[in-house]
């Protein structure tokens, strides 16, 4: 395995595979077209210019395409840039896979699936359990591979499932501390709350927003899906409405995308658990990158705050 | 027909039918139960006390029940109150109907239906037309009788259909002034935008919010319904998503209940047309009640403003 | 023990002890002074009128005074009112204590203290541990008896300690789920965050805001206290500043009383844990009072929402 | 006529007239002054550098000056730039006029004037009619040539009159749908509402804000003008105050520049009509530039939304 | 002179003159009309009921009317109320004047006028001085008698002039501390800033908002007046625009009624001086009413804060 | 003395001392490290590049270091840049001092100290006077040299003391105009309100925020300091709490950093005086830089407004 593009110094020669994250066409001063490619591997991203690009190039080098590229790492206005010497699409015989070039959750898919299955097994309310099983079956592949977002938190392969499992663990502990909680309702809410992202986002490798994602959004998408599932499963009891409400209200406020705020205890908790897990994911990853005594960069999704890592330990 | 409860003076004897709008049980100082009834006819409402109420009374005098009542109009703390002499439920032989005791739109149901049908007939896009027809068929009775809201604007029988027809007329004129508009999309949006109210509200006669109305709300309800209709009609083209977006965004902003703001021209127009018709309905009805040179009461749904009726004419 | 004022019906005779919660003087239409007393026991509160009150009465019947009262439960404008037949201050020979007339945490003081001690014992950072021990020693009595607030949540005897212990339990579980957390810092923050309330509030029995509470508030009070403690303990390391920051930022935002928002991971968590425990306390107590299928009253401290209690179980 | 600067490719030679939109002096690395000119024709704008500019150049090449320029279209940091070979002011013998180099409303001045006259003729209230006629006479030239704004909507020659005529058409239709409207008041409000822009902006060709525009603004300017007109016409009836109120309140809210919100029905409508016409103008022009299935750029004056153009037709 | 209605006890007989502040007609339970009068003198206000009022009574007892009244001070629902025995309009022979029944500024009109004149004399800029003199002449009587507001601050006879003089004194000191200030501009702004109140309010004795006050407001009214004055005085220099800007911007922000915020140094200062003098007026009058160690009532115009009066002195 | 870096033209040779304001390391395209230095003297700042910087250079050229530098003033992308020919740290024999390279208050330290002393001498309340004296003694050096802020207003040597003295002068005049003011309390508040800045900021020469400054802030820091001082001086009266409240509330609102708003008259005044002096400082310095008839740059701390300097004089 290659050492990763982020670890190359200016002047070094790169000669390995990367994934095309984005590709934009431009016209150079000499009137000839060129491509600005954004290439990535698990370590990071680099911009690359392919001068005098042919129309064939334009068709070959598109997002999600894996490429073999050689070139020199330069610096242009303070940022690294790859000066491409040669580039070609990766072939099946190259033995590389796009998934090896994007970040992954720290836990394997199978393990995440096992944990979710275990929790579903603990549920006693048959209606909630059947609805959850319906979705696990219908979206299993996507559920286990999609990121939880395109940026900010859990923005990597299996990020969605990893986020769900962390929240389930938290939900389970809260049930111990506050026994009045209806754990089945909370578990079902946790598992389904962001599943609409599998329709909101275009895919795993280079996710962008779909038209449905932009115009409807994952929350109303999922509310509709639950309604449809209930009709198929012929469940007409209150569990359906309450579960739709859990999903609908999980952003907490109208300004944050929930037209109805949480009006059921477990819905309020779902919102809070989601907040904690997303924030811990952002904070831990940012704090890892700095040394004790330093501040992180400003975190946009944390109200633009920079966080301090204290000098002392437990 | 009776002259209407609002036109009785203090001291007069009332002896006719009214509709129970609300009923609440209380305990008097002597320890005996009593009922506070809110009775109404088309002219207005009056509070009435039924002292020493039996448990049979409690069961008889419930919301939506039509009653025959005699009593004297008194005044208590500046407000009229009916002192009940006798009261009994109306019977089929009385020849009265609840609908005669609640306010109605100024246009008849048949005429409203005819106008909607006419507009649907003008639509050329087959997918939009089929979806609209599906809903007209499915909800015809409710569409033609429900109010558009429980208060503020069009809060009377057939208010929803009347609101739709006014908006359709406005939409038709806008198409003339701005020919780029996709009129089929706008018509479809106008007809369907508030149809979820037929599930959000409990009924026509004494409407209150249903559980689904409180926890989900008419907007997500209708987004789901359109999805379901499309599946039944096997329509899978972009019209479905755009129509769902029209309904989803018609309140204009997240703070006002639309998690996605309008991102399609016709969706923006739908929001504006809805605004104009609702405001004109509120303003006209309030201004009718005051004389030239006076201000109306403060209108809660118009940012609590009191409006002035000028002295001069055209 | 008496059955509690909340369980008396209109017309019943009350003859037992209650605590004076508030006392206000008025002048009756006949020009004679009277006292409006708010009397309470653990079950609830009732208003009582003492007509033709003497100046001696005014001095006797003041907040926090325990009284023996006989009278009849009446109803006035829909609310219960006690018509006093006779009233006198309780005496030491009566064998009653004010604490028996106010609500208490569901866990005993000793047990709460034991749990806090246990947690402190787990702390490894000596500076944090010493500061926490300093405060436990200095404020032990108040810490174990004060409410956590005058209303909304944990507004009863030992409410503060009960709130701390719940939060410590939650903190301990979070450490398991997110091992990067500095648990010592989080524990210290939890134990100290609201301790300034013992200066902000006037006492346990009938708490009101002190002048210092109104003009400074429990957050700056506690920041100062930590600084003073550190000087006495001669601790000059970063732990002091970070701990002051934890307390200062625990309301999360400037608008909510924290001039600096959380800028340390454990400070962010402290804010979130505080939110969860306060909200669960409010929700559980409100939901207990309603039946499945009903909504609670609107909860002011939960953005005025009314919460629904579903019909179904786990 | 030239094909328009926006249609030149990199490398092409430009040799025609353009209008100076802005001119800024700079000092090059060699210490010599140069001019950065922004040149425009109806098709668009281009930046041009005039190196080693003399002080005479500085005086010649100023905003609103028409120039004859030859040069090569280059590209600099991704944007087109004109490398000037020669430049001179246009002369009367060149037969070109600044108005030919700026965008115009799609309807001719005479036609716009005719439509406004027609509407005024329909007015019956003599006071409103006289005031409107006073202003048409006083500001006819400016009214028919000014843009309605410097950017966002109707920002072209005759934009103001075009905006007024569109709004008048809309007002006329609304009168049919809602006959209670005082059409004379609404027409007068529409015609006068933005007339203060003729003092707020510096002119037609290259409009910027005047000092009066910056410190007072078109709304208070016009309120004063109406007061002055009424004194000259010796009209002292309520129409004057109401018309001033129409202008004052037409931005709808204090935050948007109306210290008093609309408190008269026709003032509320004026605000809504203004909103619709401005939004339709922005939306139509942005949507024309994109293909079906694409999103427009983000529109600043539409809350920074990007709008989608659907694939399907009516 | 009478001791003042606020100093009467329940049961006492009142027999003197008072001013009618407001009068509302009602219908009693017996179907007969009655008048609810709000009567006042300098000490305070009291509600009075005139039962079985004739239509002559309705015409006689209107706002601003001085009346001779005898009656008994009662108490009704905790508030004082005057039970009228007899009432008649005051007559010229009674030797009483409405002004004696309303609060006045602590400084006499003549003295206020002298101070304003003195300041105008110090002005050197002839244009500003002429405009100010124009207004002093035009509105002298109103300027010296009007209140500065209907409630909150300087809400008494000559309140406007008193407010102006306090602000002029403050402006003069600021000129000493910050010599860059253009004192003439600041003085002119101070004198004219609230003069529009003489058109916004209905009068001195029982001020309410005029139609012009409600629909236009004192700020745009005064901007127009300055424009008109300048035309009459044939002043066309920048002073006019800047002075209009001073008045227009003196509320500081759009949300507070200034569509343009201060963009000139002296305009910013005018806003701040206005704030200080209004706040000091409110604070001093509220703090006078409480004893050291107490809080005032909540002051609505001070963000609903209650202020503390400390125990210690200088 | 040198003419100041801001007065050099492009192409001129600079050969004198400057102060390093900031230093950042970069890597050039050739892979070699370079330093970007921000150099300053009293006239302004300039960016300078030190190519092929050694690790010794990195250690030598750090913030607050005085350097002797020769180089040519160039222009790069429209901004001046110094091309360094030679650079070395200043030595004690050079006879230059960092303080000569940073801006200073227009009044000398001694004079500022004398004025503060004079005011303290006027105070009569012994507790307030003792607390103020305690701080003057403890922080005299810092108080007289620190800036009042790192940017926006009084951001120069002795800025804090200069700000205090201006505010004291203003406070003294206000006491004359509003004699109810407790001048001792106001003086004490003025002197202490920003003293926490001496801990919030790192120093005088090149101030940045300390960790304590970022995590606690100057307001809570100073509240704690006053508490500590009172304990040392054994003052336990209300003056301590009120003085802490003055400091705590002087930003006026929670959103602006004061968790408690002013609840004492003198606290409200302190806030207003602080506002006036800060704003006058910003406005005067910005307006000095422009000519009559021009606007200043947008001032960030004045809500991003650009201010106009009128053409006319007093």
From TrEMBL, chains A, B, C, D, E, F:
<dbReference type="GO" id="GO:0003676">
    <property type="term" value="F:nucleic acid binding"/>
</dbReference>
<dbReference type="Pfam" id="PF01966">
    <property type="entry name" value="HD"/>
</dbReference>
<dbReference type="InterPro" id="IPR050798">
    <property type="entry name" value="YhaM_exoribonuc/phosphodiest"/>
</dbReference>
<keyword id="KW-0540">Nuclease</keyword>
<dbReference type="InterPro" id="IPR004365">
    <property type="entry name" value="NA-bd_OB_tRNA"/>
</dbReference>
<protein>
    <submittedName>
        <fullName>3'-5' exoribonuclease YhaM</fullName>
    </submittedName>
</protein>
<dbReference type="GO" id="GO:0004527">
    <property type="term" value="F:exonuclease activity"/>
</dbReference>
<keyword id="KW-0269">Exonuclease</keyword>
<feature type="domain" description="HD">
    <location>
        <begin position="163"/>
        <end position="279"/>
    </location>
</feature>
<dbReference type="InterPro" id="IPR003607">
    <property type="entry name" value="HD/PDEase_dom"/>
</dbReference>
<dbReference type="Pfam" id="PF01336">
    <property type="entry name" value="tRNA_anti-codon"/>
</dbReference>
<dbReference type="InterPro" id="IPR006674">
    <property type="entry name" value="HD_domain"/>
</dbReference>
<keyword id="KW-0378">Hydrolase</keyword>
<dbReference type="InterPro" id="IPR012340">
    <property type="entry name" value="NA-bd_OB-fold"/>
</dbReference>
<dbReference type="GO" id="GO:0031125">
    <property type="term" value="P:rRNA 3'-end processing"/>
</dbReference>
